[in-house]
Structure formats: structure tokens, C-alpha cells
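SAMPLE LOG
Freezer: B-3
Tube label: C17
Construct: single chain, 339 aa
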Amino acid sequence: MSSSQSKQQQGQPRHPAFTHWPTIKIFMPPQGRFSPSADEWCFTYCNQSVTGRIHGTPPECSTICIRKVFPHEVQNILSFKRHSNVQMEKDKDGNMKAKYPLPLEGQAAHVPRILGGKKVATANVEDSSPEKKPVPFPPNLDPKNPDTRFWNTGYYLFSSSNVYGTLEHLSSMHLDVSKLAARQTRREKTKQEWLEYQDWLERVGGVDNLPELEEGIWKEGLQGEAGEEAKKYWGHKQPPRLPPPNYLDGSALVPLSPASAFQLSEKIDKLLAPSKRALELFSQDVSSGTFTKFGHRIWEKSLTDEPAQLAMRSWEKLCDAWKKAGENSGGDDDNSRRR
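STRUCTURE (predicted):
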């Protein structure tokens, strides 16, 4: 019996001291690019009508999002994040910042003027020709363009009243700024290729002539510049598909920086200046007792016979006007009968 008890005691592991006491565990979540905290918050509201469902029209959607861009998304941080294959520049603090262009809804040409937008002269992508060489960036996203806007650290506000703009934004929430810029560049290049393909179809006679062109390419072999231009839409490279619906109507992306907030507050102050002046005059009249004096005078006059006399005179003048109107209408009827 004693031997069995000694074996059990030897088999049980010895725990450290105070292991059975209640403890407090402190968990520190990772920071920076590995942080699980949210960096964007969205509110979306959509509705559809009965007639819209019958006719197949898109629903009406409104979306508002606030996104926070952290320093590691646009800056080089030692032993943490380094941006490559992108143009860099120094910011106000002397740090190297990557120039990732904002999406098209954040460029000046698509932002309302009250939020800092302006008209920007861009190249016409529809004016394509066989001799035109493809550009590395669309005009609105070219880093060398002085009117191009880029991502910076801070908060951004996205708003859209378009269902396609809502879907486009929600489908891109899994991308960082570098992947978002690359995706936008690829999409704009695809759109440009589609416009060039449509222009080529118009020059060759439309879709009806495609079977003849295909037969000439594979059997007879078209020679010259026209043949080389036609061959690039067959084989391994297929014609580009139709671009997605226009999602820029009613969509905007603006930074919530102190400077932009100050500019917006200035414009709001100018808009509300007349109302502010009217309220100031009203408050002065109230504080000076003008309305109180006016109320006392009304009460004093109401105790006299002047309101009754005013009402009687108004009623007499109204009856006289009715009588004159009746006499004039009767005279016109007599004249018409005589004629």
C-alpha cells in the first residue's frame, strides 16, 4: 500500500508556486500592418421600388465611408515596410512618401467644387489611331501630372449615390493603396484598349465584316499595316470586354484634413453670412426691448375702438370693390349682347 502511494506521488508533476492562484493576462494586439483593428467604417442604405423591379432598373443606394490611412501604407518605415516600384517624394516632415494615385473618384476632375474639385484638361482617350503608342498611365493617374492627387496619411471620406459606385467601393475594401492604384491603372488601360477596339471596328465596317477579316487572316494572310492591326485582336489576345458601368456619377473621395475642413468651413460661413446677420439683428432687437414695446403698443391699441373701425373700413372698401366689379361685368355682358 505504501509502495503504490509513493509511485502515485512520483508520477504527479510538480507545479510551480502560486499556479492555483487567479492571474491576470495582458494581451497586446499587434500594431501597424498586422493590426486587427478596423481602419474603415461604412454605412450603406439601398431601396428598390415596385416599378423599378418590374422594369429592371438598378436600386437607389447611398454610401458613406470613413477610412484611415496609416503611415506604413504610404511611407517607408525602417525594418517594417518598404515601398518599391513606385515614385517617391519627400513630405513636409522630410520622410520619403510613395506617390500612389487616388482612384478616379478622388481626382480633382470628379470631386465637387465645394470640396476642392476643379476642371482638369485631360487627353481624349477616344482619339485613338494605329500609330498611337500605349501610355504607361491614364491621364488622370499619371504621377508626373501636376493635377494628379495621391494618398496621404490621415482620414478620407467616401460618398456615393450610385449603386455601381457602392459595389465598386465595397469590392475594393480588401486592397491596400498600392494594390488599389495598380487595379485602377489596369482598369483604365482595359478601357482604353476597348475604345481603340471600337474605333477599329468602325473603320473596318462594323461587326458584320469580322467573319471576312478572320478568314483573310487565317487563310490568305492580310499583309501590310491593316493586317497587323487586325491580327492583334485574334489569337492569344482576345478583344477587350465591355468596361464596367459608370460608377463615377455621384461618387467622391476627399481627404478629411484640417486644411480641407478649414476651406469647407470658410465656404459655409460665406453661404450663411446673410442668415447670421439677420439673427444678429433679431437678437439686438430682442435685447433692446423693441419687440416688448411693440407688443405693449399692440395690447394698448386692442383695448381701443381703432381695431373695430379699421375692420369696418376694410369691409366697406371690400364691398365697394365687389359692387364695382359686378357693375363692370354687367356692362360688358350688355355690350356683347348688343353686338
